[in-house]
Amino acid sequence: MEVGKRVRRKEAIPALVRFLQQGLDNCRFSFCVISAAPREIVVSALARIMAAVIEELGKRLGIAADRFIYVGDGGSDVHIMLHVNNHDGFTIAVSENRQLARIARSTVLSDNAFSIMVPVLDQILDWRTGSIRELLERHGLTLQGWEKARTDRVQIGAAPAAVPAT
Description:
With 166 residues, the chain is mainly alpha-helical.
């Protein structure tokens, strides 16, 4: 409980929750918050437990595995993201965790919770930028910047000196 009081929360969480509850004309969203913290307690059993939780939610809500969207921010999300990806779901990393970014189908870096909807609308529902901008404005938000890029982190160094053949 005490740790949770020190965690910085994202902006616009109420707007995101209202949007998810309302859905869209052709989409319905069911959302659940699943936390794997504290890490020390769950790491060893995380893959089995979290996969079972996701599968149980799918059964209870009547959602096929390929319709899951999972959002995570840390190393404790790796196993479940792999599970969701293996079942053709959609995963979003919301931190610069390099391991997670390589696994997630999309990475969103923003202080605003509503930002997770941008890749969903763009990549899953195939919305154009103008439509996404209009949706945000209907929810009292504005799209101030969107850098659509996949970042490759590359390190290049000098090659070792060649050893002459004898």
